[in-house]
Amino acid sequence: MLAAPRNHDDNQSDRKTAEQNEERDLDITTVFTSLLKMKEAKLMTTKKHRGLLAIVAVTMTVSLMVGTPDEASAQQKNPNILVIMGDDIGTWNLSYINRGMMGYKTPNIDRIAKEGVSFTDYYAQQSCTAGRAAFITGQNPMRTGLTKVGLPGARVGLQKEDPTIADLLKPLGYVSGQFGKNHLGDRNEFLPTAHGFDEFFGNLYHLNSEEEPEDPDYPKYPGFKEKFGPRGVLHSYATDKDDPTEQPRWGRVGKQTIEDTGPLTSKRMETVDDEFLAATQKFINKAHEDEKPFFVWFNPSRMHFYTHIRPEHKGISGPNGNFYSDGMVELDNMVGSLLDQLDKLGIADNTIVINSTDNGPHYSEWPDGGNTPFRSEKNTNWEGAYRVPCEVRWPGKIPAGSVSNGIVAHQDWLPTLLAAAGAPDINEKLLKGHKIGDTTYKVRIDGYNVLPHITGKEKGSPRRLFIYPTDGGEVAAIRYDDWKLVYMEQRARTTTVWREPLITLRAPLLFNLRRDPFERANTDSNQYNHWWAVKMGNMKPAGVVAAAFFETFKEFPPRQKPESWNLSEIMDRIQAKPSNN
C-alpha cells in the first residue's frame, strides 16, 4: 500500500496550495487525455521531452494496471538566514550520523542537528549546478535548464526571468551576500550580483576545472587560456549604476562592479575557504551593525576534489584520518566559526541556519570523495546521487533534536524561507505574476513551504512527490511517498558514470524506500521479480501525480536546454532553425 496521505497545513495559504494540488490530481484518464493534447505544445517538440509522455504512459500501463511588510518592521522582526552548502558531502561523513565510524568528529555540524532538526529523506540533485539551482530558484532544474555541470564559457546559466531567494527577500528589507562556489554560469549576466545579491565573492566552477591550466599538457597556443580557460575568483557588488561595458567573453557588465582577484590555483585552494569565510563574517557584521536582516549563502569548496590541505592542517583529523578527513574537519571548523559569530553578536535565536550539500558524493577519485550508505554516487539515478544530509536550526521555533522522516528537497527552501520572512503566499504570487522593482516574475515554484512541518505544527511534510532529473534534463525516476520508480538506470560505476549513458527501461524498476532505503532489492533479493509484478499494480497514484507535474510544463516549459558534451547534440543545435514558439 502507499503511505498515508499527508496532513494539510494550518496556514491558510498552504491549505489553498494543497487544494490546488488536489485539483491537479485528476483522474488518470483525464490527465492522460490532457497530455496527449500537448503533442503540439513546445514541450513535446523535442525528442527528450516527448519522453515525459512515455514515462507517464509506462507507469499507467503497468499499473492499470497507474503582502510586503515595510523595511522598518522587517529589520526588527524578520529572521536572519544563514545557509551553508558544502560540496559533494556524503551522508556518512557527518559524525552525528556515522557515530564516529569514520574516525573523526564533526561537532559543529552535529550541533546544528542537536539544536534543530535533521532529515532522513532529504533530496538535493545529482550534480553541483542542478543542486544549487534547485535551492536558489525553488524550481526543478528541468524547468530552469540548469541540470548539467557548468563549464567555462557556457552560454547556459541562471536566467533573468527566474527569481532567486535573494531577489524575493529584497523587498522585505533583506541584504544578501553569496560567498564561495556559485556554478550557475560564468558570464556577467549570470553572476549572483545580477540576481538579487548585494555582494558576491567566490569561484564559478568545480575545482578540478579550475586546476586544469596547471596541467603540463594544457594547450600552450597563444590566447588559448584567455579564450577557453576559467575565470578567476570574482568579487562583485550590485550597484544602481548601469555599466554598458561589453567584455569580449563575459558580456555586458550591467548594474554591478566586478573584480577578478586572480586564478584559483591548487595552492590557493588550500586556503581559499578562509577568504570566503572572512568575507562572509564581514558581511554578517555589517548587516548586524546596520540593523538589517541578512540572507547569507556560504558555499565552501570542501569537499569537492581535488582536495588540497595546507601543511599545518595535515593530520588534524587524527591518526586514522587522511587528507579527506582533514578537509572534513576544516569544513566543520568553518561551520563552528559561523555559529560562534552568531552567538557573540547575540543573534543566534533570530537566525535560521541551514547546513547541507549540493549533491551526493562522488567515488571517481576515491579516497578523494565522500561516503554514503545509499546506492551509487552523484550523476546517477540512484539515491546516492540525490539523498544528502541536511540540518536546520531556529531556536525557539524548531524543536531541538527533532528528526524528520518526511520528503524534503532543496527547492522547498524558497517558499519556506519566504514564509519565515513574512511572505507565505509567494508561490501563488509568482504563479500570477509578481512585480519587484521594474521586473515582473511569472514562474511556477516547485518547492513546498515546509515551515509548519519543521516547526512541529504539522507531522507530515507537504511534499509527496520528488522528480529525479538527469543532467541532460530527462526524468530518471520519480518518488511518490515511499515508492520509487526508476525509468532510466545508470549501470556504470566510478568515473564511467560521466561517460556511459543511462539505460532507458521498457518498464520501470520499483523500490520501496522505507523498507529498502539503499535500493538493494533488485540485486540482492531472491524474489524481486515476483514482488515487482505484484506491487506494480499499486502504482496508479504515482502516475497521476507525476502526470499533473509534467502537465505544468505546458505553461512553464524549460527555460533553456542544458549544455551538452555530445557532438551529435551540439550539431543538432547548430543546425536547428530559429523558432518563435
List the main descriptive attributes of the protein structure presented here.
single chain; 581 residues; alpha/beta; Arylsulfatase, C-terminal domain; four-stranded antiparallel β-sheet; 16 strands; arylsulfatase activity; GAG_Ulvan_Degrading_Sulfatases
Please provide a written account of the structure:
This protein folds into two domains: 80-134 and 149-433 and 447-464, 3-Layer(aba) Sandwich (Alkaline Phosphatase, subunit A); 475-575, Arylsulfatase, C-terminal domain. It is of the alpha/beta class and 581 residues long. It is 33% helix and 18% strand. Strand 11 (434-436) and strand 12 (439-441) form a beta hairpin. The protein has helices at residues 12-24, 28-36, 47-63, 71-77, 95-98, 107-115, 128-137, 141-144, 165-169, 207-211, 224-228, 266-269, 272-289, 323-345, 383-386, 413-420, 426-432, 451-454, 521-524, 528-535, 540-551, 567-575, and strands at residues 80-86, 117-123, 175-180, 199-202, 234-247, 251-260, 294-299, 351-357, 391-393, 402-409, 434-436, 439-441, 465-469, 475-480, 483-489, 503-512. Its EC number is 3.1.6.1. One of its GO terms (molecular function) is arylsulfatase activity. Residues 1-22 are annotated as: Disordered.
Describe what is shown at a glance:
Keywords: Hydrolase. By secondary structure, this protein is an alpha/beta fold.
How many distinct folded domains? 2
Q: Please mark out the parts with pLDDT under 50 across 5 or more consecutive residues, or reply none.
A: 1-47, 61-76
Structural class: alpha/beta
Enumerate the strands of the largest sheet in spatial order, edge to edge or round the barrel.
6-5-4-3-7-1-8-9-2-10
